[in-house]
Known about the structure:
2 copies of one chain form a homodimer. Chain A is an alpha/beta fold and 344 residues long.
Amino acid sequence: xxxxxxxxxxxxxxxxxxxxxxxxxxxxxxxxxxxxxxxxxxxxxxxxxxxxxxxxxxxxxxxxxxxxxxxxxxxxxxxxxxxxxxxxxxxxxxxxxxxxxxxxxxxxxxxxxxxxxxxxxxxxxxxxxxxxxxxxxxxxxxxxxxxxxxxxxxxxxxxxxxxxxxxxxxxxxxxxxxxxxxxxxxxxxxxxxxxxxxxxxxxxxxxxxxxxxxxxxxxxxxxxxxxxxxxxxxxxxxxxxxxxxxxxxxxxxxxxxxxxxxxxxxxxxxxxxxxxxxxxxxxxxxxxxxxxxxxxxxxxxxxxxxxxxxxxxxxxxxxxxxxxxxxxxxxxxxxxxxxxxxxx
Amino acid sequence: xxxxxxxxxxxxxxxxxxxxxxxxxxxxxxxxxxxxxxxxxxxxxxxxxxxxxxxxxxxxxxxxxxxxxxxxxxxxxxxxxxxxxxxxxxxxxxxxxxxxxxxxxxxxxxxxxxxxxxxxxxxxxxxxxxxxxxxxxxxxxxxxxxxxxxxxxxxxxxxxxxxxxxxxxxxxxxxxxxxxxxxxxxxxxxxxxxxxxxxxxxxxxxxxxxxxxxxxxxxxxxxxxxxxxxxxxxxxxxxxxxxxxxxxxxxxxxxxxxxxxxxxxxxxxxxxxxxxxxxxxxxxxxxxxxxxxxxxxxxxxxxxxxxxxxxxxxxxxxxxxxxxxxxxxxxxxxxxxxxxxxxx
Lengths: 344, 344
């Protein structure tokens, strides 16, 4: 029911996603009267789908706390409960992000060893792609959370993006050890010693997300959200200037005509729909948020993200990785070291 | 002496800047043996310049605290002292940013009513430009600092960019009142009531810096630095993809040939050299940092930024604006309000 286009993005998106992944099956939660006619257009999809009528829906303007209180019988809640009960491997929603996070935390709970889930996505980079988290679930992050996010991001990079030993960086304002907040310095010291699924490379800066310096960039949700929105803004600005440029003269228009094929190809590579799918990592169940403004192609991509997480048994691997980390011990050892350094 | 190109950027940069501003005069601080031959190439510049030999220089790798300790007789320190003694209206340096900030804070001190200086720059935006501060001088900012930065940014926007009543936003992860850290919410509540040089528009997000939503964006130095570097990274990525695009096919290469004039014009509008000049606002003296990698065109722009600040009597206007703000009263009134809201 969620997003700007509701069933008109979700149902065709599911169809697109299923064509590339023949083992996909769908449970649609929402208003039957809207789902049935939309689904009728895709007989092949109808055959692999079940419909679960939900009389209510959460509005995009509800605050998370309000949404949770009045969530009974809403499509979002029923869909998340399907994951909790094992009837679905994952949930994808284009609805209210805050409500989806609050409800999925409440219903699915966190994986053992994870204090709080993080929102992650993939940034396009020069010659590569970078997983970035947290993008806004937790405005402030303590040391254990940053370490857990490094594990979540590196397991994702390994399982889904195929990096055998993904490189990990902590987002900071400089690469020197003494830079940044105390939490960052402590998390950095711990990660440098830690045996985990990634190879820790130290602090990275804002441009490293698109330079491809590391495979995974870890940050708190406040900084990550500002970085994500800033990147979107500059992307939009570049596109605006490029369009304006090709309008400036007759020669430029002619040039655009010749280059139109290549320009379309570039637009395709940078198409925000291909980067759609905010993963809620760290929950005991797969949950992916599709951007509210996305059409069927964007929604299909978000379904693909959920599919990859489920198929790769991401949550099992994270649980394994975190089981052998003694977080309280790591943090207290690092604090002792920090105190010694300060005394010295 | 600073920056990657030393006198080879500074001297030709000064020449370029002077051609557009006939009332500019220069004092060059550094190694006379390097300055004299560089200056000999520009007789017109030599006539409006004085040379002040400095036997030492601060290295780009010195930590700020080290740099301060061994700053005696360095070109950077002597140049800042020239501003302090009134022998220069402002200082422009391509050297070590941390050292420049530490030394200028120590020597110039803050303007009355300013707790800490901020680094500000101008972002290109769709149909406009946006002043953003702090970009890294203060990793954490309290409520009075954020308010002072709003005043600094809006006075700059008014005097130098010509906005009669510049619009101001606080960078956050959403535009709703209840979003973000407590400091942000409190600063927002105060700015909404405050009579100052700008018109406060509430919270803005990362993409608003390039959307041109407001004329001034205020943030803490950690977030601002990450946003600046992220924007630089995405700009670089866009340029990379555009170049690759025009290499993909014969038709695309042909198109690029036709459009080359327009593409060059676009590159000019987005030329990072035109946005060069990190202003250290809030100091009792003009201080501008030129990016270390800049050539003469970039350095000339940084000189222009310092010129504009001096010429517009920026510091006098800021002092006037801040003189009538009773900061402790504002903050305690806002805290009372916050407590009342929490009780309610």
